[in-house]
Amino acid sequence: MKTAASANPGHKANFKNMAGSLVLIAGIMPAGAAFATTATSAAAVSPSGSTAAIQANTSRKQSIGGSERVDYSGRLHMLSQRVAASACMLKANQNPDISRGLMAGSASEVDRILDALEFGSARLKIVGAETRKKTLQTIHSFRDQWSPVRAAITDILENGVSDTQMATIENANITLLETATLLVSEISGQYSDPAELLQVDAIMVDISGRQRMRTQKMLKEACEIWNGTSDQITQEDFLETMDLFDVSLNALRDGMPDAGVSPAPTPKIREKLDGIWSEWQEIKAVLNKVPEAGELPADVKTALYLQMNNALIETNDVVSLYTKHAKYEY
């Protein structure tokens, strides 16, 4: 059986290279570039290391909403995949009520986040409208790509599933993911100023945010495989997504210095990551059967659907913990 680990014979040999690529995948800074540590960045803001200066830095990080902007732009990553996954499951008539609910909720959340990133939102703790032209251009690009998908979702929810609307969602999926990736990169680079959000914090928020996206990407790809609508590229992407989730989870737990990733910075984050790791072992055992078995029994698919969405909730909690850590670590 071809598993995520065995699909690539050089997987173990390439582990370090994949680890080093985590930062490239995050799109924040080139692999091998110097990462600012908390101590170094704090010193850059306050050479004297005075308590007043550090407190002022903390206040600025809290007020600008930099970590929230990174977090919520990262949620667009996840939501682009959740919409596609729930559409695939709905098309297969798999837990249709749950699928419709997830599709509707995801669409509303995309709308809310886009408005918050562009105009600010007290509710989401994003203070002030976006003013940087390049970031606004990327937000507007995502809006343009999202618009037909939003219309397709509304039509499906009101009138039922149609091949035309499903195709609209499926065809826009990768483009939305790519634009969301660009937006995270723009916002992370823009707000990872030592006076607002340390770059190392932005990296951790982004990498943990990509984990929640991968729970939905794996589900979408698995669904396409067992629905018989996948091609060889989809199957390869599925195995790669599993690999990246596995490598990133271990990096977040134990650290990966070559990739600029520190071990879990607090006991609470470590405990949460350990729980996800345990659940991932069960999920991975099922997902490893998908490429060879193709179709899975209905009860197994239902259990997997619920597990993957629970994993999304758990990984989202990790992102929230990293976001809070980025704001209050001093």
Q: Classify the helix fraction into a percent range.
A: over 70%
Q: What letter string, H or E per element, gives the SSE order?
A: HHHHHHHHHHHH
> How many separate structural domains?
1
The quaternary state of the protein chains shown equals single chain
Major sheet description: none
Mean pLDDT: 81
Strand content: under 5%
| Number of alpha- plus pi-helical segments | 12
Cα radius of gyration in angstroms: 20 Å
What is the terminal-to-terminal distance?
A: 49 Å
Q: Give the class from helix and strand content and strand pairing.
A: mainly alpha
Q: Could you tell me the number of beta strands?
A: 0
Care to describe what's here?
The protein has helices at 15-26, 38-45, 51-64, 66-91, 96-119, 133-159, 163-191, 199-226, 232-254, 267-287, 290-293, 298-328. It has 330 residues and is an all-alpha fold. The chain has one domain. Helix 1 (15-26) packs across helix 9 (232-254), helix 4 runs parallel beside helix 8 (199-226) and helix 8 (199-226) runs antiparallel to helix 9. The chain is globular, with a radius of gyration of 20 Å. The model is unreliable at 5-62 (pLDDT under 50).
Give a short synopsis of this structure.
This protein is mainly α and 330 residues long.
